[in-house]
Amino acid sequence: MSQTTTRRPRAGADRPSERPGFRCTECGWTAAKWVGRCGECQEWGSVVEDAGPGSGGPRTVAVAPTRNPARPIEEIDVESATARPTGVDELDRVLGGGLVPGAVVLLAGEPGVGKSTLLLDVAARAARTGRKVLYVTGEESAAQVRLRAGRIHALAPSLLLASETDLGIVLGHIESVDPDLLVLDSVQTFTSAQVEGSPGGVAQVREVTAALITAAKSRALPVVLVGHVTKDGSVAGPRTLEHLVDVVCQFEGERHSRLRLLRATKNRYGPTDEVGCFDLSEHGIVGLADPSGLFTSRLVNDVPGTCLTVTLEGRRPLAAEVQALVAPSVVPNPRRTTSGVDGSRLAMVLAVLQRRLGARLADQDVYVSTVGGARVVEPAADLALALAAVSGRENVAVHTGLVAVGEVGLAGEIRPVPGVGRRLAEAARLGCTRAVVPSGTLAEVTVPEGLRVVEAADLAAAVLAGLAPASSD
């Protein structure tokens, strides 16, 4: 007679394994073992150990009593969220009126673009109004910042300067000084002794930013952080850095140009389609309320190969002059050289001119440039490129005071572009008397006084309107 033996299950055999896994802090990708690079977002150093939720349920419990009880929404004070001007009009334009108490602003840009110079000027202007400003630098010594401040006339008694890299010391400065504005240059240089990792690493940047945000919200203290950028132009550090802060601004500019552009890529308190213009020199940085004059030449006589257009930087119209030099080529493959213009769009426009209008450009060298280092990349500048190229090829100047706006299609048609009303208003303000625009534009916009607008359905009509003798009127 056989006996059946019943085995008792081992303790814990019905529970899943509690071996911790690993999770990417950037995108949430999980792995069974640690790797140096995330397999999903390809970010280095972002995979950390994930202990899991644990077997005891949630670890966070309610805290009683609450320090800030919930109140009816109508009783919330909105004065604390009102923006305060910084004294720099172009910066206030981008921020949406100024700095909001408790807001954390991240200003990113390439090295040498002028981030520190701009913020030092902002700090000095705020200090001159009676506010106490704390400027903490982690990249330069206090003496170096003092020399720059003297050069750009950014000295004020209420502007306090400290050179530190330890987060604990910075928080101590905030406790003792109790500033009205805090500027840190830059966030990747500060470290916390409570977190492992090198300066600029994922863990350090997250800890530094979180601590500063906590201090800003609890004290209603506006904080401006300077951030580095990577080779592709994005903000260095973890992507959560951009999610944590309230405003992310990009400071851009060509190394060989004095013009600097400030854009807001994220703004919880204002628009993200405004652009601020600045002029950077050895004497400091100043805002440009009317930067259009930087991108146009003041020629006494009309010169073939030039045409004016108006581009949109956000909602701001900027006039730019396109110059084209067309000369016979001495090499089998003619040159196509550009400066400030998208080379691929120029090649497309030249191909359309040769195919649809019969312009002889295959044996010509074409050099196209903009005035003042302007960057013209939007399709609305196609028509100006075409008129400048034809004008240079035929050695016939365009009409005096002519502005051209429109996108050129592969069939030779002129396509509509957005914001034509603002473009025409800017052209009229600069003294332009003629404009060539896509067909059907006049039905949607109001033509400014003193500006004659010609609608063109294709390149042939645009060239006829732009290069016709002035005496034909």
From TrEMBL:
Binding site for ATP: G109, E110, P111, G112, V113, G114, K115, S116
Family annotation (Pfam families): AAA_25, ChlI, Zn_ribbon_LapB
Chain ranges of the RecA family profile domain: 80-229
Gene it is expressed from: radA
UniProt remark on domains: The middle region has homology to RecA with ATPase motifs including the RadA KNRFG motif, while the C-terminus is homologous to Lon protease.
Alphabetical list of InterPro entries matching this protein: AAA+_ATPase, DNA_repair_RadA, P-loop_NTPase, RecA_ATP-bd, Ribosomal_Su5_D2-typ_SF, Ribsml_uS5_D2-typ_fold_subgr, Rubredoxin_2
Spans annotated as Disordered: 1-21
Organism: Cellulomonas flavigena (strain ATCC 482 / DSM 20109 / BCRC 11376 / JCM 18109 / NBRC 3775 / NCIMB 8073 / NRS 134)
Protein name: DNA repair protein RadA
Location of region: Lon-protease-like: 365-473
